[in-house]
Design a protein that fits this description.
Chain B: Pfam families: Fer2, Fer2_2. Chain B: One of its GO terms (molecular function) is oxidoreductase activity. Chain B: This is (2Fe-2S)-binding protein. Chain B: It comes from Paractinoplanes tereljensis. The structure holds two protein chains of two kinds. Chain A is an alpha+beta fold. Chain A contains 18 helices and 33 strands. Chain B has two domains: 75 residues, Beta-grasp domain (Ubiquitin-like (UB roll), Roll), CATH 3.10.20; 72 residues, DNA polymerase, domain 1 (Orthogonal Bundle), CATH 1.10.150. Chain B is built from five helices and five strands; from the N terminus they run E-E-H-E-E-E-H-H-H-H. In chain B, strands 2-1-5-3-4 form a five-stranded mixed sheet, covered by helices on one side. Chain B is globular. By secondary structure, chain B is of the alpha+beta class. Classes of the chains: A alpha+beta, B alpha+beta. Chains A and B meet through helix 1 and helix 16 of A and helix 1, helix 2, helix 3, helix 4 and helix 5 of B.
Chain lengths: 797, 157
Amino acid sequence: MTTVHEPKLSQFDDNDQKPVGFGRMLRKEDPRFLRGRGRYTDDVQLPGMLHLAILRSPFAHARIVSVDTSAAEASPGVRLVVTGAMLAEKGLAWMPTLSNDVQAVLATDKVRFQGQEVAFVVADDRYAARDALELIDVEYDVLEPVVDVRRALAPDAPLIRDDLTDKADNHCFDWETGDEAATEAVFAAADVVVVEDIVYPRVHPAPMETCGAVADFDAIDGKLRLWSTTQAPHAHRTLYAIVAGLPEHKIQVIAPDIGGGFGNKVPIYPGYVCAIVGSILTGKPVKWMEDRSENLISTGFARDYIMRGEIAATRDGKILAIRTNVLADHGAFNGTAAPVKYPAGFFGVFTGSYDIEAAYCKMTAVYTNKAPGGVAYACSFRITEAVYLVERIVDCLAHELDMDPAELRLKNFIQPEQFPYETKTGWVYDSGNYEPTMRLAMDMAGYADLRKEQAEKRARGELMGIGIAFFTEAVGAGPRKDMDILGLGMADGCELRVHPTGKAVVRLSVQTQGQGHETTFAQIIAEEIGIPPADIEVVHGDTDQTPFGLGTYGSRSTPVSGAAAALVARKVRDKAQLIASAMLEVSVADLDWVKGAFQVKGDPGKSVTIQDIAMRAHGAGDLPDGMEGGLEAQICYNPSNLTYPHGAYICVVDIDPGTAQVKVRRFIAVDDCGTRINPMIIEGQVHGGLTDGVGMALMEMIAFDEDGNCLGASLMDYLIPTALEVPDWETGFTVTPSPHHPIGAKGVGESATVGSPPAIVNAVVDALKPFGVRHADMPLTPSRVWDAMRGQATPPI
Amino acid sequence: MQVTMTVNDVEVTREIEGRLLLVHFLRDVLSLTGTHWGCDTSNCGTCVVWLDGEPVKSCTVLAAMAGGHEVRTVEGLAKGGELDPIQEGFRQCHGLQCGFCTPGMMMTCRALLDKNPDPTDGEIREAISGQICRCTGYATIVRSVRWAAVHEAAVTQ
């Protein structure tokens, strides 16, 4: 394991002509987007296509008394109106969620959250479909909703899930990890114990493109083609086969260009199923595209954890144990998209980057009358919540010990020689070297000078804060012995075919939503077999054209599919070497691989290129005995472990003492994601995640009123950072390769979303230290900061 | 009703409903799908096009209101086969990831450069503050616009 500080590339350095391998390379996918020629789901237009719109519940909890669709059916342009009762007749009113729960496609008995799907209309155009929704007359018997998560398990709380047999309360699941008794023993004997109630409010990924689908069922050959906004086309295909009873080989799921995912496009939503039903019943292609409000009120939310954090330490700042109790709000249906054995996702990594003696977590999850979801918004399966908890409680400890938060972290890091490191909750961190990463961030920030500046400002009554967060991520789900989604192992396939002229096509099971797969995967293949990236076509997002795999979320594309790509290329190279040995009439052992060619050891003049070999593989000449023609391979990669990227983030904020407005002045992010394939793309991913963090820490929250009305139902109410709320990001990196990944790469897509919220909150709390503030919950809006300054900080829920 | 407008230098006449939004007219009627629809409240700016050279959010303009006017969309940004410097800037500086906000961002930024060929970072941020990007964190968009400004200045000198 080595840590290397590569020279920082100038922002305009460009090696677009790069023949092979890793490094900054402009994106192959950009030209179509720049010309307005991207092809997103809503851009799909098929002959005779109809449009679908969904009627949603205005109430959070209500019994459906009757639904009258007659006026809607008579509305101009309407072809079809479907209710829950009609779906129930076909056995399609309910569908499984990714967490082994069920969710209503269209409500039959009750509505259980505001925005739940009640009926749909298919009409000649978008507007006619919407017009008809207004004419559907639904009579509701309004019930008391469960909005306050803390009251969900009260004996008198209304029962939400009376659809489940023998369900008498709103309990969803219990989960625990770590050693309760050992942790209690450490806490009982510790010098210092700090306890803090920490809320991670409900937020929403809100990708710029909302969710939607175009379903085209051909009754003659029984084939369903479905263009949809999905991050996991193969998993969706299998689930449609199970839900709808269509044979899997007759379903083609196509994820075209996707306008951002962030986990919002992992679940199967009722709208997709409605589009399929609409196409089957009308015999026409049917498009469903939700609007922004529908996206915000009904699709996968994120977080919503109420956490009690406890930390035990010695007086001189050695952290001994961490304990937490979590109340998780899962909404009306358990629709989290996490591996089956991990109902709380990977929250178990809440011990963070520290070498401690004991840890324990107990979690209770409940149903409420809110939209389903939970695992989304670049959360790496709940690591956002885990890292926020540990990095906030460590800062609370620093506050209590009156110790510098950087010094406290440096004192407790897992040391490089301890890797692979098994945490007290059973996670095996593959590699890490934390101190150089932390030191680099402190150097870039000018940490000592910042503290000096802060002291001077405090003396003048100015509010400046410096916040630190250090995170360890766990990405690349995952080993199939432990991880599956509804029984589907989380492995990924890859196929590579080299054409006779030496150009290649690689077929992936993962799906880009902006991460630049068409570029980075070409670079991985190029690095391994020496064919220039420009000569490699990357095919993805179409189940008829790509091998099976679980898709892109949880930062898993590079750790899992990237490994598959490297290994399939090595398989092709191995075959190429056999052919080269025949062509050069030397033994395999006498050949050296120099990117792109095999040459005879000691005689560089005798060599054959990969292009020569490709032609021979398909040509007329002899191949080694027993060898088939062609130059191609396929693989299904099962990762042996997750990869564990880490990073050190430092945030500097200024707070206006008169208005309590927080300004993020600087943000320094040092990431270590192992081997770096394309630094430009990595930097872009980090920038995006940091911006998410500013949103969550300072602006974003999906709130509800006491009746269960969603208060974040538009982008006027759900505030997302613009260019004015974020600083010019300062990024750096260290490189600690993963020991088990073929190219040493770790995932990076969600690191910044995981690491930035605690850095920002820690900075705000640090700025408020003169007011005696030790903790304040997100979102730190001016009014909430104002309350904290006056000693009246309250939880947001 | 009948509406006639010029879209990317081509005059088009269509029979439409009076309530049809310009964004849907461009996308569904003219099949110019480079302009996107992201919210209904004029907050996200992914639908920005030019109306007589001024950036507007086409989700809050009726197609009928564009009658007799000139509309330019992302499809009309490149001249001939050549990318406009703003497009090239976005490519060179990684100003886009998923590409969904990109057409609207580029239309706004092109209009900015037409009025102010040498904008500061702050002026660029101000210009795009009515638009949302979820992927880039904006810094690379600012660099992209600077790239275009610097390269245009080099060409005109």
